[in-house]
Amino acid sequence: MTDRLTIGIIGDGFMQPGFFEAALREKLPGRALTIRSMEVDWPLRLKSTKYDPTLPVGEFVGRPEDYFDFLADLDILVTHLAPITADSLDHAPRLKAIAVSRGGPVNIEMAAARARGIPVVNTPGRNASAVAEFTVGSLLAETRNLIRGHMAVASGRFGREFYHYANTGPELCELTVGIVGYGDIGTRVARLLQPFGCGILIYDPFKELTPEEKAAGFQKAELDDLMARADVVTLHPRVTPETKGMISRARIAMMKPGGYIVNTTRGQVLDYGALYDALVSGQLRGAALDTFEPEPPPADWPLLKLPNVTLSPHIAGASRHSALKAATMIAGDIALILDGKPPLHPCK
To answer: Among 95, 131, 133, 316, which residue carries the largest CB count within 10 Å?
Structure first.
């Protein structure tokens, strides 16, 4: 293809436009490219509008009309968080493909893209390693008082109470960890935990264990059985109608006394009111939370005040490697589309 292509990149402070441009120029050598970029002021100022009932998309930044002028002469659109709706596509008559650097195309109106014959690609698994590492780190931080110890020392108090037996936590080798959702992230969590000597229980109705996983002692379990047997429950399912609220008050009540919950997926899968009650009552010993519902949580939310919770501001997937990997995946699929070949990561 010798015709000049106009590629538009809508980036932000994490998925920076320069990452995409560098990857595209590497994957599309010799092509005549015009690359135009814009960078939205996220995550430092703008907040995601997650579930606006007036729009058929979710987890986006800005409004569709904010990007209409930018879309007008594009052949290819690369975006991270811009909402792309049917109205958006009406303003992009030349568009041949959309690439979104997300695990799912939640900010793209897929029905509208399909109706216009515009292929959409995304980046599944781009941050799986980052989230899996963060999950294990969060579990260690909560069980072994890492954040509480840091806060004590940083405030000028050496915090010797954390050496009192009553305040010490378990070692991972003592624990059975229940992994809810066994996709790219859940499988990595299991592999990272294996050298610690944890027991591994897995709930995922769509996945079967490999012979190697079975030989390593991993076990599949129904969700209620997992909740009852695990010392730690770590959450990794996608948000679907079936998974919203799946870790309910009744299921939290099934957990062993002294258990832990770790959530690095979306807040909608967990009943936070029930979690609060379980932490206050002492049924659960602790929790590590990177995601919330609502998000951000209100400053006066009681759960934020508990001493037995490790909190982080939805940053599990925020690694340099995941940003650069997403850009490389995007560029590779765009090259395939332009060569008339099927992309590796098509969205249905």
So the answer is: 131
Distance CA 143, CA 89 (A): 49
Catalytic (active site) residue 314: yes
Q: What is the DSSP string of 150-196?
A: HHHHHTT---GGGGSGGG----GGG-EEEEE--SHHHHHHHHHHGGG
Can you give the pLDDT at residue 50?
A: 60
Burial class (CB in 10 A: 0-12, 13-18, 19+), 321: exposed
Judge whether 293 counts as a catalytic residue. Answer: no
Q: What is the DSSP letter of 29?
A: T
Catalytic residue among 25, 36, 91, 314: 314
**Which of the residues 266, 293, 321, 345 is marked catalytic?**
266
Q: Above 60 in pLDDT, residue 1? A: no
Dist. CA 267–CA 271, nearest whole Å? 8
CA–CA separation, 30 and 80 (whole Å): 26
Hey, what are 330's tokens?
Answer: 């995007």
Q: Rounded to two decimals, what is the model's pTM?
A: 0.93
Q: Is 26 a catalytic residue?
A: no
Using one digit for the tens of pLDDT, what is the confidence trace for 323-339?
999 999 999 999 999 99
Beta bridge partners of 97: 76
Which is catalytic among the residues 295, 320, 321, 345? 295
